[in-house]
Amino acid sequence: MHKIIRTYSIGGMQVNWYEMTVNETIKRLGSQAETGLSSSTAEKRLKKYGKNQLTEAKPPLGIALFFKQFKDFMVIILLIATFIAAYLGEAVDAIVIVVIVLINSVLGYLQENRAEKSLAKLKQMANPVAHVKRDGQWVLIPSSEVVIGDIVRLKSGDRVVADLRIITSTQLSIEESAITGETLPIPKVSQAIKQQQLNIGDQINMAFMSSLVTSGHGIGVVVATGMDTVVGQIADLIVQAPTQKTPLEKRLQNLGKILIFVSILLTSLVVAAGIWQGQPVYQMFLSGISLAVAVIPEGLPAIVTVVLSLGVQRMIKRKAIVRKLSAVETLGSTSVICSDKTGTLTENRMTVVEIYLNQRLFQVSGGYSFTGDITGARNQAEDKMLNRFLRYGSICGDAELLEQNGEISIQGDPTDVAIMMAAAKKSTSIIERQQVTKITEFPFDSNRKRMSVVINDGNQYYSIVKGAPDILLSRSDRIEENGRILRMDQVRRAKIEQVLNSMASKAYRTIALCIKPLPHGNQIKAEHAENDLVFIGLIAMVDPPRPEAKKAIEQCKKAGIKTVMITGDHAGTAHAIAKELNILPQHGQVITGSQLDQMTDQELIDQVDQIYVFARVTPKDKLRIVKALQANGHVVAMTGDGVNDAPALKNSDIGVSMGKTGTDVAKEASDLILLDDNFATVVSAVEEGRHIYENIRKFIRYLLASNVGEILVMLFAIILGYPLPLLPVQILWINLVTDGLPALALGMDSAESNLMEQPPRPINEGIFARGLGFKIISRGLLIGSVSFLAFILAYQNGAQSLEYARTVAFMTLVTSQLIHVFDCRNEKSIFDRHPFGNRYLIVAVLSSFALMIPVTYVAMFQAVFYTVALSLRDWMTIILLSSIPTIVFGFTKR
């Protein structure tokens, strides 16, 4: 694939953008580097060229979904039997069966259509966004709305959203293996390359759609979108992956196969026994097929999909986007949540509160605002030092000061924003920043834990370095005091470490600032710019814990879920926050990244259950932590937002990325995206995962117990030599009115109050675990028994007809199932929970029961379903017998 040579066509002419200069490219595309496109121009281009997306396989059309319902093997057999019935002169039976099959198909179509729409909406919400310049302002837009000529900002962790010509590049490297097959990142430049017929891999001033920014940042102009991009041109080589079934759906699919085998065996037994006892062959054949169709829960997969998608929609309302349906099942088994501190457990609204400079502490007031003051300067010289300190701190960062409609705001990384906000409290610092020429930048890297810029400040070159205090202290051999550069001796170093410990004990996050005078600003390497530094001072920030985080952590404890804090901050800061949030128990351990490096994998596995806080760790350490927890049998949810978090997110059982601050790479590696970057949302998602799984168990319990009852009532009659209690059309009608709406309503049931007070579900737990198999068989046995008893009592009443007895059995079987559905709302007993708390279930049951009334009392339907009108006394008997299964097991609580 790396041999591909790419040219672009404009007005029928082939264009090689890499050969053009930046100015030529922008002019040719009708754009402006400073202001980007206007909103109106972008809108026109979007209409002209279409959305920036690859052509995908179209979802099934409505008519295709409808006819898909007739592909089921048992439905095909039933339709064949219907034709036989018509051939034998049983036209009424044939018509009724066809009508029931059609109604079932319509219901199945509606369920699947809703699932398709829900999943399409989910996919749309998970789409990446692009940072583009419109009307002179940087804005975030969906990647599908990017158009040719848009000015796009790139930073580490982004997916390139279209084909771009690089305009500016600061240590920018892009990994293009998806296109070229080469795994090593390619450093990018902005200069034109005057060479024709250049391979994709050699076009180092271009960025291609779907490639990955691995480091640095830059700006590019869009030269192609959608199917006109390189990826679009080779889209025919990309096979759309089929929708993957969740582990639960696979288990249910296997369950369906087992049920088909069992039902065919049992119905064959019923048919054979009936024929042996002299029942008409045709009637037994049709009864057997009808019974098999009724017994096999063919609607189960559709209901599972609908319930999963409805659960996903509920999660979206709770600020969590599920990218993979399999995550819904796994969420309920989560036993450990490993959470970043900043922004997830805290508000991610950094505010500078203290500055250590010139061996003194300066207090910063005003909080997260431009108002306030910085106090503590003893003289004008010290005030001047403070101004320069804040100015350099603002320069060494990516925050931007914006003014719109007379209002000032700051955009960028929260740490950089906090420093610039503190500088804004001394307005001259911001103005002076503009007089500095930035020559080179070495962007922040979570492994290096620092960033630096090389500047020209009044014909004097400096590197300004900002980062973790312990890292920068180890690289500093001098310190600035009272305007003089002095040697960093042990006394001064100890004093700084003492201040750091004091700040950490107050849960402050600390940043160090250093400088290094340079003879010139050209061709400076990062290692040279960030070594032999002059230590200037410390910045202490506070990032208050989220108020809802503490409550969510307590909820986790009740649910048997351990919360682990992972942070790059100082151990003292992490310890203080962990104590405040009640993460750290009395004997819980706090370890640092350096201690982690000294531990073998086995030592980590042995100790990890006692560790609650990992401080000063890098993203690569997260992977070791995940594997150690998994080795001890835990199901791990891991949060992350950066490029380097991707391996840990992929290897964890539930990868959780940040929707606001997370990179595109982290989002693509994750199973769950938090729209609000909030720890409480992770806990809400776990609760929702448990809720969905329990609802699926509820309707499986209901469907299978009801089907067991239907088989047994027929089997009892055949074995004991009675006439068939139910006719084929009655069996099919029962299946129609009891299986669909009530089962779906159970899937929409509210969570039980003690859901988050139970331990995590074992990841390999079978669907019939926790007594579900016993509940299905025992309830099914009683439902079948009381229905058969109702038939015997009515049949032995000599004054009545066989049709009367069948009508009583018919109504008893339906009524017992519709009463039993309320019992299925609780794991133990119907009396442990308000039986009428699910309004959807009440409507579904009333609707199902309403369908039985005309069948019993309207003459036209009586002729079709072979029923007779029942008296009030009959109904009292039916309700009494139908209530027995629920009452019996309501008191036994099993």
From TrEMBL:
Family the UniProt entry places it in: Belongs to the cation transport ATPase (P-type) (TC 3.A.3) family. Type IIA subfamily.
Transmembrane segments: 70-88, 94-110, 258-278, 284-310, 699-724, 730-748, 780-798, 804-822, 843-869, 875-892
Keywords (A to Z) from UniProt: ATP-binding, Cell membrane, Hydrolase, Ion transport, Magnesium, Membrane, Nucleotide-binding, Phosphoprotein, Translocase, Transmembrane, Transmembrane helix, Transport
Enzyme class: hydrolase
Catalytic activity: Ca(2+)(in) + ATP + H2O = Ca(2+)(out) + ADP + phosphate + H(+)
E.C. designation(s): 3.6.3.8
Domain Cation-transporting P-type ATPase N-terminal: 16-90
Gene Ontology cellular component terms for the protein in this record: plasma membrane
Protein name as it appears in the record: Calcium-transporting ATPase
Localization of this protein: Cell membrane
GO terms assigned for molecular function: ATP binding; ATP hydrolysis activity; P-type calcium transporter activity
Lineage: Bacteria, Bacillati, Bacillota, Bacilli, Bacillales
Membrane association type: Multi-pass membrane protein
Species the sequence originates in: Amphibacillus xylanus (strain ATCC 51415 / DSM 6626 / JCM 7361 / LMG 17667 / NBRC 15112 / Ep01)
Pfam families: Cation_ATPase (PF13246), Cation_ATPase_C (PF00689), Cation_ATPase_N (PF00690), E1-E2_ATPase (PF00122)
Major place of residence: membrane
